[in-house]
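Might I ask for a little of your time on a matter of protein folding? What I wish to show you is a protein chain and, alongside it, a tokenised description of its three-dimensional fold. I should value your view on which stretches of the chain appear to form regular backbone elements. You will find the record immediately after this paragraph:
***
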Amino acid sequence: GELPTATQYDEYVTTVKRHTMVHEQLMRLYQGFRRDAHPMAILVGVVGALSAYYQDSLDITNPEHRLLAATRLVAKMPTIVAMAYKYTVGQPFMYPRNELNYAENFLHMMFATPCGPYTPNPVLARALDRILILHADHEQNASTSTVRLSGSSGANPYACIASGIACLWGPAHGGANEACLNMLFDIQRQGGIEKIGEFIKQVKDKDSNTKLMGFGHRVYKNFDPRATLMRETCHEVLNELGLQNDPLFKLALELERIALEDDYFVSRKLYPNVDFYSGIVQKAIGIPVQLFTGIFAMARTIGWIAQWNEMIHDPEQKIGRPRQLYVGAARRGVVSKGIR
């Protein structure tokens, strides 16, 4: 692909804004979930159900159908994620406002109510925008591979994205920033900043099961380049909201300081990664920890769709068939059930 011209950009933004609403009947689907359902359970069901409501864009061999489905997914994901949040807290759904940009609109649908006006904070909107950009795509990770494998069978794009959401839900993949915040909550419950030294000792102890979440990365063996921008964003948000002295955020910043100065972490290149900072930013904005992976899914949908479309566009594309090497028992006879 190529970067769009100014005209192409404006046209696509207008097109996306025309598709931000969801089918009214789809809104009733939320009522089938328990109020305490995990947001990712809701997202898997609702996104998968989109194919039942938008049947005019399911022919994956038609480029126009693919573009329409891609645009709908990009446009509707913020609405769907925000509705999942509103449903779980018992508040009415908020319709999108198309005069707002992508991030502002999401904040509006999350935090506005019919009781009064809501103006998105530009610092928070910019922070969310950065989170969405930095999480949009990241090579052949587990969820992206899942989307491509699902798509290789000819499944419709809504089903493919739902499969990616299901994979992202796994704590080893999309739950990293949620795990990071839960770690901070645990330290806070144990005594806060005064207990950081004890926590660090446990992390260094090989016989301890204590893990330092939000530091280091499987791909980035040195510093996570995304973390540089998110660190700056994190401090901007905390300053804007006056949360520098909030106990939880003071704890996070102290943990950051120790990790950047302690030889144990520096020598092992265990620097804060993007999950550490994005979790802090989302918590400061007011996004509940349970919804962090939903925000991740909203951001990654763009990457999933791009990867899916690239694969479908390939004339040599075939159904994925990962190979297995059997290493089980040797050939055995069947023993009669009565004498086993």
In short: The chain has 15 helices and no strands. The chain has a mean pLDDT of 92.
